[in-house]
């Protein structure tokens, strides 16, 4: 797919320059991260409230485990489909419909009255997690090779921030409904989820109105002008991506970083409430709020940690080529596994918090480093590659969920086992290699980069990139 006028600069000067909101590149960046943020917020909005839900519906440990698995299982299929859909109709329409349709189960989970109905809605909500693939796709087609890793990592990182914010904000929203408006706890968590779903629906409308698929227009317009291959010519891209063993290596790798983040988002508040004595004597609303704030620190690292992973991926790529990006990925993933094992052994709250933050740093840098590699695997099948790799994150979370469901394993032991698995899986990075021709092409594109974004700052347009 040949697209021109990709942005060749991405940094604080571009991100916080409001004049650049007039450019399609920066508009896509800001809309995509914000949409993903709200999707993440809605996706895991119920997680910090599970103590209340479990009490109301008398859920067992095994049933809570099934809820953890269900929340991420459907996203595996949704991400595979949405990647293919992006190649066909473009990210603008894909995101619009995902936000509008995905908001329905988020709002409707308030109608759940027992474990079965709750699990059905929890599974349905998981489809909204496919938003990640569209976010990465949209920034990948808007930014040039020299900065695409940083742009991808920042858009996804700021989106993932929703996972941390929801741990902090949803207990406060719940507390507001209960203490300020006088709702019962049963009505309070239901009303909280309705608010999250409504925000997703409104963002879906905004995405349609304020973004476009590519720097020079929407896919339908570009195809009509002969600037993009027709839909029929994009057939077979999914199979093409699926036949590449490197895609499946990245599938596993992403499962051991983003999959772990999803798992922690699901269990963090409950983990702190159940495994640290500090919370045992508090009333439920206060304990929930404090545990949510601590658990939220894990997700808040997305504010900069994932960006660091992508930024250093770009730097390693500029110095050592595509193989440099892969080596950086190995380093941060290996350290993630060690940090997770360390956190699992913490039994004192004051030690557990810094261990959690260190672990979070490496998790999110690993995610950013992964998607600094993905855009270079197969540019013709970018959506399908992104979808498969992104699905790996959810597949990893599903697999991890079974550890937390097992009655025979304590949650600290489950975390230690996960850390060991991550450390071992980091060696899959060495299966991701590139031909000399791909290395040369990437070098040429990096060397040929222009001076920056076209648009209000009157900078020259970027050269055409594939």
TrEMBL record:
SUPFAM superfamilies: MFS general substrate transporter (SSF103473). One of its GO terms (molecular function) is nitrate transmembrane transporter activity. The keyword Membrane applies. Belongs to the major facilitator superfamily. Nitrate/nitrite porter (TC 2.A.1.8) family. GO terms for cellular component: membrane. It is found in: Membrane. One of its GO terms (biological process) is nitrate assimilation. This is Putative nitrate transporter NarT. The keyword Transmembrane helix applies. PANTHER family: HIGH-AFFINITY NITRATE TRANSPORTER 2.3 (PTHR23515). Residues 28-437 form the Major facilitator superfamily (MFS) profile domain. It comes from the Bacteria. Signal peptide: none annotated. It is a multi-pass membrane protein. It comes from Symmachiella dynata. Gene3D superfamilies: MFS general substrate transporter like domains. Keywords: Membrane, Nitrate assimilation, Transmembrane, Transmembrane helix. InterPro entries: MFS, MFS_dom, MFS_trans_sf, NO3_transporter. The chain crosses the membrane at residues 31-52, 64-82, 94-112, 119-138, 158-181, 193-210, 247-273, 285-308, 328-361, 381-404, 410-434.
